[in-house]
Amino acid sequence: MQDNRTLSPGLKLAIEAGPLVVFFIANWQAGIFWGTGLFMAATLVSLSLSWLKTGKIAMMPLIGAGFVALFGALTLWLQDDTFIKVKVTLINGLFGSLLVVGYLMDRPFLKMVLGETLQMDAEGWRKLTLRWAIFFFAVGSLNEIIWRNFSTDVWVNFKVFGLLPLTFAFAIAQLPLMQRHGVEAPGSEG
Predict the structure, then answer these.
(1) Phi and psi dihedrals of 120, rounded to 5?
(2) Do residues 84 and 72 lie in contact, with contact meaning Cβ atoms separated by under 8 Å?
(3) How far apart are CA 99 and CA 185, in angstroms?
(4) Closest-CA residue to 90 (of 102, 72, 78)
(5) CA dihedral sign, ordered 133, 13, 159, 66
(6) d(Cα 128, Cα 120) in Å, to the nearest integer?
(7) Cα first-last separation, the chain
(8) pLDDT higher than 70, residue 185
(9) Nearest to 42 by CA among 59, 58, 55, 26
(10) Could you tell me if 106 and 130 are in contact, meaning their C-beta atoms sit under 8 angstroms apart?
(11) What is the pLDDT of residues 41-74, one digit of tens each?
(12) 83: closest CA among 45, 40, 47?
């Protein structure tokens, strides 16, 4: 039996952005190591709330949580903030690489993630997949530039206040492509 419970947009945003807000505030008040530890805890709370409210956890947040756990633990254990900083680069590189592999195999993994909510023709999925792959690589590269050349506080501000708006703006910029290649869902004829 499949569970079809969904989150309201506000609750979904709170669950997804909550750990970042906790990370920002904890870093601001107590430093990167406290921020990292509380980020790890908030990520676990976020996944738990998602599970309780919907009965499932989406693959991308689950992978992200795995990266937060691994790189957060390394950051705290070794007392080296490089690990939590490079996590952003590596996870974006992983997502970009997975999308490129799917693109080259003509199996758009993005369709597997979004196919229930977004209906597009094959060309649209290929274009959208390639665009998101490039975006992930660009964000990973930008993260490298920022954490290597600026203070930890600047990097935290970028992570919290830069990445989310960049991702949101990029997603909105894809709307014309999705509209051009949109198809009607099977069985939704009026």
Answers:
(1) -140, 160
(2) yes
(3) 24
(4) 72
(5) negative
(6) 10
(7) 28
(8) no
(9) 26
(10) no
(11) 999 999 998 888 888 887 778 888 999 999 999 9
(12) 40
Alpha-carbon separation of residue 114 from 125, 146, 188 (angstroms): 10, 30, 18
Instruction: Please give the share of the chain, as a percent, with pLDDT higher than 70.
Output: 94
List C-alpha distances in Å: 187 to 2, 23, 183, 184, 190. Answer: 19, 44, 12, 8, 9
Tell me the backbone φ, ψ of residue 182, rounded to 5 degrees: -70, 145
Give the pLDDT confidence score for residue 18 in this predicted structure: 87
Amino acid of residue 67: F
Torsion of CA 149, 155, 158, 161, to 10 degrees: -160
Whole-number Cα distances in Å, 13 to 6, 112, 125, 160? 13, 22, 25, 13
Structure tokens at 81: 């903030």
Return the SS3 of 118.
Answer: coil
